[in-house]
UniProtKB/TrEMBL annotation, chains A, B:
NCBIfam families per the UniProt record, alphabetical: PRK05985.1
GO molecular function, one term: hydrolase activity, acting on carbon-nitrogen (but not peptide) bonds, in cyclic amidines
Protein name: Cytosine deaminase
InterPro entries attached to this UniProt entry: Amidohydro_3 (IPR013108), Metal-dep_hydrolase_composite (IPR011059), Metal_Hydrolase (IPR032466), Metallo-hydrolase_Enzymes (IPR052349)
Domain Amidohydrolase span(s) in chain numbering: 47-389
C-alpha cells in the first residue's frame, strides 16, 4: 500500500517553496530543487504549509459516542461518578469498542493525525472486550494510521480484584503500554497500585503511562512515588504522566521541585490544556527539556460532550490555556502536538528529514502560528506516501 | 430592505418541526401550522435548528488586523505593554478603523451575529478617528447588522489630559455608551476616573460599560467604587462590568459578597471565558439572576492572535472554561451568547416571539447542546427578514 509521490509547491514548516519526494513511503527529498523521477504521481500543494503528521498522544478510542446520536451527559461532578456512570452506560447503550474506535480513527485521519496513543479500558466487567475491539480497528486501519494501545485499569486496579490478571492478559494479547490512574484517589493504596503497575512494566519490558488527576499536594505525593519507582527500576525515559494537574498548582516552589525530578528522570508529560483545571505550564516544562505531548482525551463520550479529534485545534486550546500570543509560543503549541507526541511515544523515523516516514500534512495558512489559531480543514494528509485525506475529509470509511 | 420570508422545516430551539413566517422584517408566525401567504418567498430549512441571532456583546471592531497578512505578536506580558505597543503599531501599520471594522463585521455576519457592542478607542493621539471609522461601517452595514458603540478611553482617562473632552465629543458625535477601564491599575486614581465616567453617563443619560481586568482584592475594591456610584446616581440596570476577573477569585466569600451587590444593582457582567485568567463563574451568576453576556474581545489584533468572531464557538469556549457538560449547562452557554447579550444591551424586540425582529440563525445540529460543541458553519442567517449569510459565508462584501 505504500507509495511513491511528489508534492509540489509546499512550504515546509513555513519555509521557502519546496517539493517533497516520497519513495516507498519514506521521504526521499525535500527542497526547492527536488524533482520527480518519471512515473511518480504528482500532487500540487497550492502553496500550503507542510508539517509532520499530528500526534494524538492521549485519547480513549474505545468509548466515543460518535455517530450514535446526541446523548445528554448524565454523570455527576466527581471522577468516580464518571467512572461508575460509564460502566453502566456501556451496558445500556451498547457502546461497541470496535465500531466506535473506527469512527474516531477516521475522524482523526481527516484532521491529519498520523499516530494515536489510546488508553483502552480493562476491568472485571468488560474483561478484554474493549481491547479486542480496538485491536481489530488497529488492524483494519494499519495502512493509514499507527495506533499504540495502553492497557488502562479505568475502574481501579487493586480495588477490583482480578483486574491485574486482566491487564497482564491484555499485554499478552497485544496492548503496548501499562496504564494506571490516581493511585490515591481511586485505588486508595498508592504504593500497592504503583508497585503492581511498575511490576507489570518490568515483567513485560513495557513503558508506563499513568493518568494523574490528583491536584496539589496529593498529586505531588503520588508523583514522588512514581519518581521513586522510575529510579529504582531504571525506567528513566519510559514513564509518562498524563494530565498532571498538580503541576498547575499555585505553589510554584512545589511545582519547581517536581519539575526538577521529572527532567532528571526524563518523564514525559501529557496535557490537554484543560480550561477548567490547573494544568502543567507548557513553556516552563519545555524550557527544562521535558518531553510534552497532548491529546483530545475523550471525544463525545460519557465523560463529556466536547471534542472532534482535531489536534491542530488542540494546539490552539493549549495556546489559549497557556496564554501563548507570540509566534514562537504558538509554534511551541504546534510542536507539542507533533514532535512532542513523537518524542513521548518514541516514534521511529518521525519528522521531515530524508529517510523519515512520509507522514505529512498540508495546511493552507501563511505561517505556522496562523495554522494554529485558524486550524483550517487540512488540504492533504499523507500516511507513508499514501494520500489518506483531502480537504478535511478522510478517504478511508468508518462503519 | 426588510423583507417577507417563510422558512420551512426548522426546529425552533430544538423543538418540533415548524415554519417561520416573517412579514416586513418581524416574526409574524412560528409553529407547525404556519404557512406562507401567496407571493412570500420560501427558504427550506432542511431540519436545522432555529435560534435567535448571536450577540457579540464585547469586541473591538476598530483594531482587528483581519486581511492585513499575518503579523507576529509584539507586545510584552503586561496590560500597559499591550496598550503602548498598540498605539505605536496603529501608526506604523496604518490600521484603518473603517476598513478593519468592515472586515470584522462581515466575518461576524457569516457566523450568525446580528448585534454587536464594540468598544472604540478614543485617546489624545487618535482623537475621534477610530469612532468616525466605525461609525462609517455602522452606517454602511446598517441594514444587515446592528452595532452599538462604546466610547472607550483605552490609553487611560485622567492619565491623559484631554481624553475626557474627547469622550464627550465622541458621545455627541454618535457613540452610545460610556466606557472605562481599570481605574486603579491604569489611571491610578480610581475615585477620580470613576467620577468622570459616571459624570459623563449622567450628563448624557447613557449607560456605562467598564473593562475591569484588575484581579482579586484590587478588582473588588474598584467594583465597590462602581457599586457606590451606580447606587448614588440611580443607575441600576445601566452598568456593565466587562471581564470582571476578580469574580473568578478563589476567595468565594469575597466573590459571593460582590455577587450580592451585582444582583441588587442589576449590573450586567461580560465574560469571554478566558482560559488563562480567573473568570466569573457563569452558572453561579445566572442562578442569582445576573445578566451575563459574552464576546470575542479583540480578534487578531495587536493584543493577541486568536479569534474569528464565531459566537457559537465562543459558547463552546465558555462551556470548556466553566466545566459545562450537561445539556442544560451547554444551553446556558448558548443563552449567554444570545439572550444574555440582548438582556445586557437592552435590545428591543429580540427573540423568537411574534412581533420580535426577524434576526435568526439556522444551525444544522441535533440539539442546542450539539450546536455549541460542534458549532458547524451556519446554514442561514437572517437579519430583519433579509438573508445575509448562507453556509457560513456572508453575502455582504468587505473592503
Amino acid at each position: 500500500m505504500t507509495q511513491d509521490l511528489l508534492i509540489t509547491d509546499i512550504r515546509p514548516m513555513g519555509g521557502a517553496p519546496s517539493a517533497l519526494l516520497i519513495r516507498r513511503g519514506r521521504i526521499a527529498g525535500l527542497g526547492p530543487e527536488v524533482e520527480a523521477p518519471p512515473g511518480v504521481p504528482v500532487e500540487p500543494g497550492g502553496g500550503a504549509l507542510l508539517i509532520p503528521g499530528l500526534v494524538e498522544a492521549h485519547t480513549h478510542l474505545d468509548k466515543s459516542l460518535l455517530g450514535m446520536g446526541w446523548r445528554p451527559h448524565q454523570a455527576g461532578p466527581r471522577l468516580i461518578d464518571k467512572i461508575d456512570t460509564e460502566r453502566r452506560l456501556k451496558r445500556e447503550w451498547g457502546i461497541d469498542p470496535r465500531r466506535q474506535s473506527a469512527r474516531q480513527v477516521v475522524q482523526s485521519i481527516g484532521h491529519g493525525t498520523t499516530h494515536i496513543r489510546t488508553h483502552v479500558d480493562i476491568d472485571t466487567e468488560l474483561g478484554l472486550s474493549g481491547l479486542e475491539g480496538v485491536m481489530a480497528t488497529r488492524d483494519a486501519y494499519r495502512d493509514v494510521i499507527d495506533i499504540e494501545i495502553v492497557a488502562f485499569p479505568q475502574s481501579g486496579l487493586l480495588a477490583r480484584p482480578g483486574t491485574l490478571a486482566l491487564l497482564e492478559a491484555g499485554l499478552r494479547l497485544g496492548a503496548d503500554v501499562v496504564g494506571g490512574l490516581d493511585p490515591c484517589a481511586i485505588d486508595r493504596d498508592p504504593a500497592g497500585q504503583l508497585d503492581a503497575v511498575f511490576g507489570l512494566a518490568q515483567r513485560f519490558g513495557r513503558p508506563v503511562d499513568i493518568h494523574l488527576h490528583e491536584p496539589g499536594l496529593l498529586g505531588a505525593f503520588s508523583m514522588e512515588l512514581i519518581f521513586e519507582r522510575t529510579l529504582a527500576l531504571g525506567m528513566q525515559g519510559q514513564v509518562v504522566i498524563s494530565h498532571a494537574f498538580c503541576l498547575g498548582d499555585a505553589d510554584t516552589a512545589m511545582v519547581d521541585g517536581l519539575l526538577d525530578q521529572i527532567a532528571a528522570l526524563d518523564i514525559g508529560i501529557m496535557t490537554t490544556g484543560s480550561a477548567s483545571r490547573p494544568v502543567p505550564p507548557v513553556a516552563k516544562l519545555r524550557a527544562r527539556g521535558i518531553r510534552v505531548c497532548s491529546g483530545s482525551d475523550g471525544i463525545r463520550d460519557t465523560w463529556g460532550p466536547y471534542g472532534d479529534a482535531d489536534m491542530l485545534e488542540r494546539a490552539m486550546l493549549l495556546g489559549l490555556r497557556n496564554n501563548f500570543r507570540r509566534d514562537d509560543e504558538l509554534e511551541m503549541a504546534l510542536s507539542v502536538c507533533t514532535e512532542g507526541g513523537a518524542a513521548v511515544m518514541r516514534l521511529p523515523h518521525y519528522g521531515l528529514r530524508v529517510g523519515d516516514c512520509a507522514d505529512v500534512v498540508l495546511v493552507q495558512a501563511e505561517t505556522l502560528a496562523e495554522a494554529v489559531v485558524a486550524h483550517p480543514p487540512r488540504r492533504l494528509v499523507v500516511k507513508r506516501g499514501q494520500v489518506v485525506a483531502r480537504d478535511g475529509v478522510a478517504l478511508p470509511r468508518a462503519p
